[in-house]
Amino acid sequence: LPPLLEQLQAIHAEAENPEDALEPALRAIVESSGAVGGALCLFDQRHSVLRLSAEIGITDEGCRRLRTIRRGDPGCWDIPLHGVVNRRAYLIENASENRYVPPLVDGTNGMRTIACIPVYSGISALASVILVTAPPRAFAERDITLLWKPLRELASMIDAVRRRVG
Fold first, then answer.
1. pTM
2. Dist. CA 74–CA 161, nearest whole Å
3. In this structure, are residues 37 and 129 in contact, taking their beta carbons and an 8 Å threshold?
4. Beta strand segments in 63-143, E
5. What pLDDT sits at residue 19?
6. How far is CA 151 from CA 15, 46, 81, 109, 128, in A?
7. Whose CA is closest to 114, among 44, 56, 37?
8. What local confidence, expressed as pLDDT, does residue 146 receive?
């Protein structure tokens, strides 16, 4: 299995339409990180909301809470939006025990760690990648740091989608 950055570059190069690359890219990120589920939410700057674009292994409830994320909406889970707005990654440990975190993945083991990582192109906010681990796997700061270069490739895919749509 080639390193994640090479996988993402290949996915980007092989996609007929830029939007067709997003779900395979998310799948590659989820698999290479050892996560059990993940979501990609694209940022709409005009309305300051995140919208669910692709998901791997996320529950129906999780999808409902991530479909449209806006500030102050009790029907959504807004930590990914805070990460994008504040330009910082959030690492939530013991996620199953956190009453503010919706059940994002199924499974008897529950959720161990959730990483909400903002994706930027220069100063432009593009998206949030949400990754969920199950015990015994846990994310640490180092895991997020290892994703910065691959996420730059994801940012170029999202930019390509925006250019095509725009």
1. 0.95
2. 30
3. no
4. 68-69, 90-93, 113-121, 124-132
5. 93
6. 17, 23, 17, 28, 10
7. 37
8. 93
User: Are 8 and 25 within 8 A, CB to CB?
Assistant: yes
User: How many Å apart are CA 153 and CA 129, to the nearest integer?
Assistant: 13
Give the burial class of 38: count Cβ atoms within 10 A of its Cβ; 0-12 exposed, 13-18 middle, 19 or more buried: buried
pLDDT at residue 61 in the model: 94
Task: Please give the Cα distance from 29 to 147 (Å, whole number).
Answer: 8
* Band (22; pLDDT cuts 50, 70, 90): very high
> Residue 44: which H helix or E strand, with range?
strand 37-44
Are 15 and 21 a contacting pair, CB within 8 Å?
A: yes
Q: What single letter denotes the amino acid at residue 165?
A: V
* Confidence label for 108 from pLDDT (cuts 50, 70 and 90): confident
pLDDT at 1: 54
Both structure tokens of 73: 């909406």
Compute the average pLDDT of residues 92-105. Answer: 93
Yes or no: say if 92 and 46 are a contact pair by the CB < 8 Å rule: no
Residue 132: helix, strand or coil by DSSP? strand
